[in-house]
Write a structure and sequence with these properties.
The complex is a heterodimer of chains A (407) and B (300).
Chain A (H helix, E strand, L loop, with lengths): L3 H23 E4 L4 E4 L2 H34 L7 H7 L1 H21 L2 H26 L7 H19 L3 H23 L4 H21 L1 H4 L20 H28 L1 H11 L1 H6 L4 H27 L9 H14 L4 H17 L7 H15 L23
Antiparallel strand pairs in A: 1-2
Helix pairs in contact in A: 1-2, 5-10, 5-13, 5-14, 5-15, 6-7, 6-8, 6-13, 7-13, 10-11, 11-13, 14-15, 14-16
Chain B lengths: L1 H31 L6 H22 L3 H28 L7 H22 L5 E2 L19 H23 L1 H11 L1 H6 L4 H27 L1 E2 L3 H16 L4 H22 L4 H15 L14
Antiparallel strand pairs in B: 1-2
Helix pairs in contact in B: 1-5, 1-8, 1-9, 1-10, 2-3, 2-4, 2-8, 2-9, 3-8, 5-6, 5-8, 6-8, 9-10, 9-11, 10-11
Classes of the chains: A mainly alpha (407), B mainly alpha (300).
Chain lengths: 407, 300
C-alpha cells in the first residue's frame, strides 16, 4: 500500500509543514519584555503529525477516486449504511425509537442536573441543525447568518419579558414568527443572488444584527445584555432550579420529537420535493413550473422559524443573554453539524449535533481544540465525504422486472 | 477643512490596505470562481509572521531599514507558502465539486487557521513594534497626513504597478488571463493550469502579507481575529468593484475606505462595521456585477 516513494513524498511534505508552521508554532515572542521563547518540541509534533496525516490524506483521496470510478462502472449503487438498513425494517425501527425515547425519558433520573443541562443544550442544537438543514440541506441555500434568527428569537423573549412581563409560552410563537418574518424580509431581496453571494450576504446580515444589538444600547442594553429573564412557567407553579432544568429538558425532548416529525413530513411533501429539485437544478425547476421565489422564501422563513423558537428557549434556559452569544462562530457550529451529519439527512443531523456538542463537553481537555476540529471537519468532510456521515437517501421508485412465468 | 482632508487621507490609506487584500479575492475568483474565505486568515498570518520576525530582529538590534526589509520578505514568503498549501489541501481536491462544497471547505479552512494561531500563539492583542518612523519632512502636515499613511499609499501603489506589469507583460500573467477566460481552452493550448492556479494563490497571498504588515504597524496591535473582519471588508470592496476585475478591486477598495472613513468621522464610530456590511448587502442586491464588472449571463 505504502511504497517507498509515497513515504519519501510524505517525508518531504512533513518537512514543508515544519517550515510552514515555524513562525507560529515554534517561536513565541514577547514584544514588551523583549524575550523570545523557542518551543522546539513542537517541531517534532508537527513533523510526525503532518507525516501521518499526509499519508492518510493521500490514501483516502486515492480510495475516494477508486470508489467513484467503481460507482460509475456499476451504475447507481445503493451505498446504504448500517443505520439506513436498520431503519428500513419497521420492526427494528420501532425498537430503536422505543429505546431512544425510553433513554430520553429516564435520563434526568439517572444523572445529575449538570448532565441534564448539557443534554438540553445538545437537543437545542439538534433542533437548530434540523432547522438549518431545511435551508442548506434541502433547499441548497448556504445560510451563514443563521444565528441572526436565533438572536431575534432570544431577544424578542428577553425584551418582551423585560418590558411587558410576557411569559415563555406567550412569546414562543411570537419569537418564532418574528424570526420567520426576518427570514422573509432578508430573503426577499437576496434570493435572486447566486449561491456563494447569498452565503456572504447572509453572513453580513448576521453580523449587522449582532453589531446593532451591541451598539444600540437603548434598545438591547448593549454588550452587558439582559439578565433575569424568567424561566418557562409550568401552569403557574413555582419550580425549584433543579426542577426547572428537568422541565426545560423535557420541553426540548418534546420539541425535538415534534421537529423530527414535521421535518420528515415536510421533506416528502410537495414543498420538500420542490426544494430538493431547486437545489439540484434551478433552471430545470423553473421550466417545470415551480415558483422559485416562493419556494425559496418558504425554506428561508421555515428555517428561521425554528431558529427563533430555539432562541426563545435559549433565553429562557440561561435567563441571561448578550450579543456575544450570537457570533458568526455559532452559525459555523450549526453549519458544521449539518455538514458533518449529512446535508438533507435527518438522522445524520441528529447524530452530528450530538457528536459535535457532547464530545467537547465530555472531553474537557480537548475542548479548546473544539473550533480547530470544527474547521478541520468542514474541510475533510467536503474533500472526502461531501454527503456526510449518514447520507440522505433520495426517494426512488423501485422497479421490479416481472417474472417471465407470470407474464 | 483640515478634518475633511484628514478623513480623506485616512480613508485613502484604509482603502489601500483593503485593495491589497481584495486583489487576492478578485484574482482567485477570476481564475477558479471561488470565494477564498480563508484569504483574510492569510493576511492575519502575514501580520503574525511580521510581528514575530520584527520583534526578534529588534532584540538583535538591527538597523530599522534592515528590519523593515527582512520583515517584509519573511511575511511575504510565509504567507505565500500558506496560500499555496491551503489551495493544495482544501481547494484542489474540490475543483470539480459544486461551488458550495468549495465554499464550505474555505470556511472550514478559515476557522482552522484562526484557531491554529489562537492556540499556538495567544488570544490577547499583541502590541506591534513601530516600524515606520515619523519622517521629519512630514512635520508641517503631520496633523493631517501621518507618515504611516504616506508609506501605505506608496507601498500599495508600487505593489499595484508591479502586479499590473506582471499580469500584462509576463508569461505567467498571460497564462493567468487565459485561464481566467476559459480554463479548458487554456489547457488545450498547453498551459499548466494547476501551476497557474498555484501562482495566483501565491501572488494574492503575498499582496495580503504586505497588507498585513502595513496595517499591523499602522494600528499597532494584532490579534488572531483581525483576518475575519478585514477579509469580509476586502471581499466587500472586491464585489463593489466587480469581482474578477483587478482595477475594479482597487476602485472598490478606495470607495469603501473613503465611505467608512467619512461615515465614522461625521456620523458615528460605533457603527463602523455596520456601514461596510450594509454597503455589501446593498451592492449585492442592486448591482451584483459591481462597478467595473460585467454581468455574466447564465448558460443553460
Amino acid at each position: 500500500m505504502f511504497t517507498l516513494q509515497e513515504l519519501k513524498r510524505s517525508a518531504l511534505i512533513s518537512l514543508w509543514f515544519v517550515f510552514l508552521t515555524f513562525p507560529i508554532m515554534v517561536v513565541k515572542v514577547n514584544s514588551i519584555e523583549k524575550t523570545v521563547q523557542w518551543r522546539w518540541m513542537n517541531v517534532v509534533y508537527v513533523l510526525v503529525g503532518s507525516f501521518v496525516l499526509s499519508l492518510l490524506f493521500r490514501y483516502f483521496l486515492y480510495r475516494k477516486e477508486q470508489q467513484s470510478g467503481e460507482d460509475e462502472q456499476q451504475g447507481d449503487n445503493t451505498g446504504r449504511s448500517l443505520i439506513h438498513r436498520l431503519l428500513i425494517v419497521p420492526k427494528y425501527r420501532n425498537m430503536i425509537y422505543g429505546v431512544l425515547l425510553g433513554t430520553a425519558v429516564v435520563f434526568p433520573f439517572l444523572t445529575s442536573s449538570y448532565q441534564v443541562n448539557i443534554m438540553t443544550t445538545a437537543l437545542m442544537y439538534v433542533v437548530l441543525g434540523l432547522g438549518l438543514n431545511i435551508v442548506v440541506g434541502l433547499a441548497g441555500l448556504l445560510d451563514l447568518g443563521y444565528v441572526a434568527f436565533y438572536a431575534v428569537g432570544a431577544y424578542s423573549y428577553a425584551l418582551l419579558n423585560y418590558h411587558f412581563g410576557l411569559g415563555f409560552w406567550a412569546v414562543l410563537p411570537i419569537g418564532g414568527l418574528l424570526a420567520a418574518m426576518f427570514g422573509i424580509l432578508l430573503g426577499f431581496p437576496v434570493l435572486r443572488l447566486r449561491g456563494d453571494y447569498l452565503a456572504i450576504v447572509t453572513l453580513g446580515f448576521g453580523e449587522i444584527i449582532r453589531l446593532v444589538l451591541e451598539n444600540w444600547g437603548g434598545f438591547s442594553q448593549g454588550p452587558s445584555g439582559i439578565s433575569n429573564i424568567s424561566r418557562p412557567g409550568f401552569f403557574g407553579i413555582e419550580l425549584s432550579l433543579e426542577m426547572a432544568i428537568v422541565y426545560i429538558y423535557y420541553l426540548m425532548v418534546l420539541f425535538v420529537i415534534v421537529t423530527i416529525f414535521l421535518v420528515n413530513r415536510l421533506q416528502d411533501s410537495r414543498l420538500g420535493r420542490a426544494w430538493i429539485a431547486l437545489r439540484e437544478d434551478e433552471i430545470a425547476c423553473q421550466a417545470m413550473g415551480i415558483d422559485k421565489i416562493k419556494t425559496k422564501l418558504a425554506a428561508f422563513s421555515l428555517g428561521a422559524l425554528w431558529a427563533g423558537i430555539i432562541g426563545v428557549v435559549f433565553a429562557a434556559k440561561t435567563t441571561f443573554i448578550n450579543p456575544a452569544s450570537f457570533t458568526f462562530l455559532e452559525s459555523a457550529i450549526i453549519l458544521s453539524i449539518v455538514v458533518l451529519g449529512g446535508m438533507g439527512s435527518i438522522i445524520g443531523v441528529i447524530i452530528g449535533a450530538l457528536v459535535l456538542i457532547l464530545l467537547p463537553e465530555y472531553l474537557r481537555a480537548l475542548s479548546e481544540f473544539r473550533m480547530l476540529a470544527f474547521g478541520a471537519i468542514l474541510v475533510c468532510m467536503m474533500v472526502f465525504r461531501p454527503q456526510g456521515i449518514i447520507a440522505s437517501i433520495r426517494r426512488t421508485y423501485t422497479y421490479k422486472p416481472r417474472n417471465r412465468d407470470e407474464a | 477643512m483640515d478634518y475633511f482632508i484628514e478623513l480623506f487621507f485616512s480613508g485613502l490609506s484604509r482603502g489601500a490596505i483593503y485593495a491589497l487584500i481584495a486583489l487576492g479575492y478578485t484574482m482567485v475568483y477570476g481564475i477558479i470562481g471561488l470565494i477564498n474565505f480563508a484569504h483574510g486568515e492569510i493576511y492575519m498570518i502575514g501580520a503574525f509572521t511580521s510581528f514575530t520576525v520584527a520583534t526578534i530582529l529588534t532584540i538583535l538590534g538591527l538597523p530599522l531599514l534592515a528590519i523593515i526589509v527582512l520583515t517584509g520578505i519573511a511575511a511575504v514568503v510565509w504567507s505565500a507558502s500558506y496560500g499555496y498549501t491551503i489551495e493544495k489541501i482544501a481547494y484542489k481536491p474540490l475543483r470539480h465539486a459544486p461551488r458550495l462544497s468549495a465554499l464550505i471547505s474555505a470556511i472550514g479552512m478559515s476557522m482552522f487557521l484562526q484557531n491554529y494561531v489562537l492556540l499556538a500563539q495567544t488570544s490577547d492583542f499583541l502590541p506591534f513594534p513601530t516600524l515606520i518612523p515619523d519622517f521629519a519632512f512630514m512635520e508641517p502636515i503631520a496633523h493631517i497626513v501621518g507618515s504611516t499613511d504616506l508609506v501605505i499609499l506608496i507601498t500599495t501603489t508600487v505593489s499595484m504597478i508591479f502586479l499590473m506589469v506582471l499580469i500584462k507583460y509576463t508569461r505567467i500573467g498571460k497564462a493567468m488571463r487565459a485561464t481566467a477566460q476559459d480554463r479548458t481552452m487554456a489547457m488545450l493550448v498547453g498551459i499548466n493550469v494547476n501551476r497557474v492556479i498555484s501562482a495566483t494563490f501565491v501572488i494574492g497571498s503575498s499582496m495580503a502579507a504586505i497588507g498585513g504588515l502595513l496595517i499591523a504597524s499602522h494600528i499597532g496591535q494584532i490579534n488572531f481575529y483581525i483576518g475575519f473582519l478585514a477579509g469580509i471588508k476586502a471581499f466587500t470592496a472586491a464585489v463593489l468593484g466587480g469581482i474578477g476585475s483587478i482595477p475594479g478591486a482597487v476602485l472598490g477598495s478606495v470607495v469603501l475606505g473613503l465611505t467608512e472613513s467619512f461615515a465614522t468621522g461625521y456620523v458615528s464610530s460605533d457603527y463602523e462595521d455596520v456601514f461596510a456590511f450594509s454597503l455589501l448587502v446593498l451592492i449585492l442586491i442592486f448591482k451584483p456585477s459591481g462597478l467595473l464588472g460585467k454581468a455574466d449571463t447564465q448558460k443553460v
